[in-house]
Amino acid sequence: MTIGRNKAWGAVVAGLVLVLMACAPAQAREKVGTVVKTQGEVSAAFEGKTRRLAPGAELFKGDTLLTGGKDSRVQARLEDQSDLTLGGNGAMTLDDLVVGPPGTTREVMSLLNGAFLLVASPTPGAVIRTPVATLGIRGTQFWGGPLDGALDVFLLEGKVEVRNADGSVLLDAPGQGTVLKGSGAPGGVQVWGPDKVARATATVSFAP
C-alpha cells in the first residue's frame, strides 16, 4: 500500500510541476534599443510573431526590424548609444548587444535586406553580417546596402573593414566606398562622387 501511495504522490507532484511550468512567464529578453522615429509601415518580428513599432517602442535581442515599403524608414537608438536607420523594404536582425567597460562592448547585427545607416558609438566591437560580407566597425558612421552591386559600403567617419572568404578592404577615410558584386572579394577602395552619395543617402532619409 505504501508503494502505491508513493506512486500516486509522485504522479501528483509531476502534474503540479507541469502546471507550474506552463504557467510560468517566458524568460524576459534583453532590451537592446528603443525606436526613435518611424515612417510608413514598420514592425519587429521574433519567433514567428510580428508587432507594429512606433516611436518609444522597445527592441529586444533577437528582433528583426522590418520596413514594409520602399518609403518606410525606422531609426533606433541602441543601448550602447549607437544610432541605426533602416531604409525601405529592409530587414535587419539585432543578434546581440552587450554593453560593458571600454573595449568590451559587443554589438552584432545581420542585414537581410535593404539599406542602412549606422552611427556607431565610440567603443569598438560592432559587427554587421550580410549575405556577401561581414563589416567590422571601429567607431564609425557609414552606410551600407544594394546600390550598384549586391552590397555597397560608404564611409562617412571612422573605419570599417569589409571582408569575406575571398578577401577584405579597409575604408579608413571619409568619402571612401567599395562595391561587392555578389561573389568574389570586395572591390577596390574608391572615392564616391556626389551623385552616388546622394543616391545612397536617399535610401535612408526621412521625408521632410
UniProtKB/TrEMBL annotation:
Q: Which Gene3D superfamilies match?
A: 2.60.120.1440
Keywords recorded for this protein, A-Z? Signal
Q: Where is the FecR protein domain?
A: 66-161
User: What start and end residues bound the annotated signal peptide?
Assistant: 1-28
Q: Domain of life, per the record?
A: Bacteria
Q: Which InterPro entries match?
A: FecR
Pfam families (UniProt xref):
FecR
Tell me the protein's name: FecR protein domain-containing protein
